Amino acid sequence: MSQHRPSGAPGRTGAVPALPELPEATVSRLPEYLRALHTLADSGHETVSSEGLASAVGVNSAKLRKDLSHLGSYGTRGVGYDVALLIDQISSVLGLTQCRAVALVGVGNLGHALAGYDGFASRGFRIAALLDADPSRVGEEIHGLVVRHVHELPRVVAEESIAIGVIATPAPAAQAVADQLVAVGVTSILNFAPCVLSVPEGVDVRKVDLAIELQILSFHEHRKASLTALPATGGTGLTALPGGLATPDTQEAIGT
């Protein structure tokens, strides 16, 4: 889930090369393509067909080809895509050609788990700082990093050139942390707190709410259970609906 606030400066000059205008849906799928490509490269594959890559990611091949065409990558007929080249193209577009420093705020159970996740380093990110407001946690060492007080955030961001802030605090504290991150110049935030953050223009927020994802899965489980419990035709005059609801049979409903 994403909160995006346009910066309003499309013509800004600088060292960063111009990027293609990509649909948000395409951007959300590029990391999936990249992960599949790394797996292919690790297993010795030098090329991959659009059908093979699409199958590995779980999308249809037409959608994949359209996504990659935005990058100027069309593959070779009869050969497919060069795996190493496509990894480079997608990594470049996603800004993964440099290791980005991340500050993690909130070192409770979730924060501990995130701090020790090896997948960040292998995908171009470095947890550079751990911060918390709880004095009992300040000074604790977690995976080689000493937890610092959140009041040190301005110094931490400057010292470590923090690019992204991760919020793993309880919901009541999340907005204040977001405000602090924005105040010291952090414009990309990954929010694990179960709340919606208010941020100014130019700040991008990605929200990860594990409870919501479980609730969506619960809906699908509920729906599957209701579909397997459909009554026999002509029995009660009721037609089962997804979710376990029922409505009178059409003939009876119109009085015929």
Indicate the structural class: alpha/beta
Question: Portion of residues in helices?
Answer: 25-40%
Strand content: 15-25%
Count of alpha/pi helices: 10
Strand order of the largest sheet: 1-11-10-9-4-5-8
The biggest sheet amounts to:
7 strands, mixed
- Indicate the mean pLDDT: 86
Order of helices and strands: EHEHHEHEHHEEEEHEHEEHEEH
Shape, per Cα inertia axes: globular
| First-residue to last-residue Cα separation | 48 Å
- What Rg do the Cα atoms give? 24 Å
The protein's oligomeric status is single chain
Question: How would you characterize this protein structure?
Answer:
The protein is of the alpha/beta class and 256 residues long. It contains ten helices and 13 strands. The strands form four sheets. Strands 1-11-10-9-4-5-8 form a seven-stranded mixed β-sheet, with helices on both faces. Strands 2-3 form a two-stranded antiparallel sheet. A hairpin with a 3-residue loop joins strand 12 and strand 13. Helix 1 packs across helix 2, helix 1 packs antiparallel against helix 4 and helix 2 packs across helix 3. The protein is globular, with a radius of gyration of 24 Å. It starts with a strand and ends with a helix.
